[in-house]
Amino acid sequence: MNTILKSVIVILILASFVSDNERKIPSVDLKTLDGKTVNSSKFSNDGKPMIISFWATWCSPCKKELNTVAEVYSDWQKETGVKLIAISIDDSKSSSNVAPYVNSKAWEYESYLDVNSDFKRAMNVNNPPHTFIVDGSGNIVWQHVGFKEGDEAQYIEVVRKIVKGEKIEH
């Protein structure tokens, strides 16, 4: 019993030293827009950063964010190699609107459906838009809730710091 208690204490102490910068993307099954199952733990970008944006078709700031980023996304990709992954949290009632909306915007993002909100819960997302930036090793290093014009400049600055190997402060 004493050994178990000591082990638990050591684990708790070690866990207290783990920062947000070392949090990985949780493993959750999502659907592609054409119905295939993909596990979020498989998200990768050949060692380059990723932006994961939780959004919904009923969320105006979400659509504004993704449409604003779409205007500069190809430049960002050329400069940093960043990949954006759009996670729709539309439920079963509105998820049929996602593919037509994405296709009408011609977004070059990977897009997935989280109809049951499993990934949303695993990532502790309460309100969209909620955007995460992940380093090339799959660590979640930065996050932002909401969107107003100009926030996209913050996103690319964080991505640039990751590419340069600089420490991310948030």
Structure explained in plain terms:
With 170 residues, this protein is of the alpha+beta class. It has one domain (20-164): Glutaredoxin (3-Layer(aba) Sandwich). The chain contains five helices and eight strands; from the N terminus they run αββββαβαβαββα. The chain has an eight-stranded mixed beta sheet with strand order 1-8-7-4-5-6-2-3. The chain starts with a helix and ends in a 6-residue tail after the last helix. 30% of the residues are buried. Mean pLDDT is 89; it is low at 5-21.
Rg (CA only): 17 Å
Quaternary state of the chains:
single chain
Q: Please write the CATH class name.
A: Alpha Beta
Estimate nothing, just give the exact number of structural domains: 1
User: Could you estimate the helical fraction of the residues in percent?
Assistant: 25-40%
Stretches with pLDDT under 50, minimum 5 residues: 5-21
* Full CATH superfamily name: Glutaredoxin
Here the CATH topology equals Glutaredoxin
Mean pLDDT: 89
Q: From N to C, what is the helix and strand string? A: HEEEEHEHEHEEH
Name the strands of the widest sheet in spatial order: 1-8-7-4-5-6-2-3
CATH architecture: 3-Layer(aba) Sandwich
- What is the rounded distance between the termini? 41 Å
Overall 3D shape = globular
Structural class: alpha+beta
